[in-house]
């Protein structure tokens, strides 16, 4: 079987084409791959300098992500009473750890070996787990956004938040697994013997027509990025609109919590959690948008990429997407540890300054 077909688009982070993919050592179109065709002779992919840099950075990110996510998991589990927000963070951390322990090592090792050496069963299972890990990160992030929407738009329903989030999390993880099942059927190993024996984990031959493969790629892209993005934008637009109304005093009533009362600190805590979720969502969008936009460019205008986009850029964009798994626990740590300590220090400083002012005024009256 010849392997001179062009590479898959970036959504094929989960869908390998023979010899050519973001998770192998080359990129999307044949002109961007780490293989060349000279006088119609197929050149197999090689472990290029760009791929070596990618491997080094991926292993560094893997170590950082492991440490940060395990630390976040330990902090979230160290509290005797787990709030429903901490349960969400634990699930997001678990999803990030899946990416850390599956996507990153497989990507790095595959770049080193260039071809697939783990056999057909591992090819199918690992491709399933890779996509399932990516889906779970996106879907749990959506659940966090929906939870914040309920907390802001319907604060009196806090008593049902735990049960509601449990249902949404079960749906998120179930859908992640369900949408990834096709990977086990469309992926398989393909071996060629010319110009040398070479085996790759690929979708080649699984689709009868090119439009079927494109449709599957677009479905994956929509569920993995586009649909979550639209939901999150809608959710936070509604939240900002509601906050704006409340800040203007147009929707405050006797039954609503007063956002300007801070005796019990509940409004402040709710706003702090909202800010944390917003930063998590923003980080997800910033890290993955460039990667998927380049993929859309390839799907609709593949000829425009030829000679214009370096394969080093695709390596960079994929690594930038993986950086999201390192940022989530750092964001959680900043909003739950550092900010809390600064707030306590600030409050104590205010108390001291107020007491000093009172004592100075008292002394001046006495004199």
UniProtKB/TrEMBL annotation:
Primary site of residence: membrane
GO cellular component, as recorded: plasma membrane
InterPro entries: GPCR_Rhodpsn, GPCR_Rhodpsn_7TM, GphnRH_fam_rcpt
Domain of life assignment: Eukaryota
Keyword 4Fe-4S: no
Subcellular location: Cell membrane
BP GO terms, sorted: cellular response to hormone stimulus
Stored Pfam families: 7tm_1 (PF00001)
Gene3D superfamilies linked to this entry: Rhodopsin 7-helix transmembrane proteins
PROSITE patterns: G_PROTEIN_RECEP_F1_2
TM region(s), chain numbering: 55-76, 88-106, 126-146, 167-187, 218-240, 278-300, 312-335
A molecular-function term among this protein's GO annotations: protein-hormone receptor activity
Segments forming domain G-protein coupled receptors family 1 profile: 68-332
The UniProt record lists the keyword Translocase: no
Keyword vocabulary terms for this entry: Cell membrane, Disulfide bond, G-protein coupled receptor, Membrane, Phosphoprotein, Receptor, Transducer, Transmembrane, Transmembrane helix
Membrane-topology annotation of the record: Multi-pass membrane protein
Name assigned to this protein: Type II GnRH receptor
Species, as recorded: Mugilogobius chulae
């Amino acid at each position: 079987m010849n392997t001179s077909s062009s590479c898959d688009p970036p959504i094929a982070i989960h869908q390998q084409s023979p010899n050519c993919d973001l998770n192998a050592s080359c990129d999307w179109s044949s002109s961007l791959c780490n293989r060349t065709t000279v006088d119609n002779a197929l050149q197999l992919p090689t472990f290029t300098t760009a791929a070596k840099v990618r491997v080094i950075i991926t292993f560094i990110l893997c170590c950082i992500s492991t440490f940060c996510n395990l630390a976040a998991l330990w902090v979230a589990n160290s509290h005797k009473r787990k709030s429903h927000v901490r349960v969400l963070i634990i699930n997001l951390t678990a999803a990030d750890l899946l990416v850390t322990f599956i996507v990153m090592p497989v990507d790095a090792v595959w770049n080193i070996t260039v071809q697939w050496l783990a056999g057909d069963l591992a090819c199918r299972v690992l491709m399933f787990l890779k996509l399932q890990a990516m889906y779970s990160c996106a879907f749990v992030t959506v659940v966090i956004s929906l939870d914040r929407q309920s907390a802001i738009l319907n604060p009196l329903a806090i008593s049902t938040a735990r049960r509601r989030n449990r249902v949404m999390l079960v749906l998120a993880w179930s859908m992640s697994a369900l949408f990834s099942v096709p990977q086990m059927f469309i992926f398989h190993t393909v071996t060629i013997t010319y110009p040398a024996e070479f085996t790759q984990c690929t979708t080649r031959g699984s689709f009868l027509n090119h439009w079927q493969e494109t449709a599957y790629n677009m479905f994956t892209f929509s569920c993995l990025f586009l649909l979550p993005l639209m939901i999150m934008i809608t959710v936070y637009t509604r939240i900002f609109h509601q906050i704006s109304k409340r800040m203007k005093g147009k929707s405050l009533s006797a039954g609503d919590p007063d956002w300007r009362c801070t005796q019990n600190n509940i409004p402040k805590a709710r706003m702090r959690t909202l800010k944390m979720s917003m930063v998590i969502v923003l980080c997800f969008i910033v890290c993955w948008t460039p990667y998927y936009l380049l993929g859309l460019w390839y799907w609709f205008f593949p000829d425009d990429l030829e000679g214009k986009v370096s394969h080093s850029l695709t390596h960079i964009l994929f690594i930038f997407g993986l950086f999201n798994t390192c940022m989530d626990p750092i964001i959680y740590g900043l909003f739950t540890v550092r900010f809390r300590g600064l707030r306590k220090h600030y409050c104590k400083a205010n108390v001291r300054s107020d007491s000093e002012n009172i004592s100075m005024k008292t002394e001046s009256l006495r004199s």
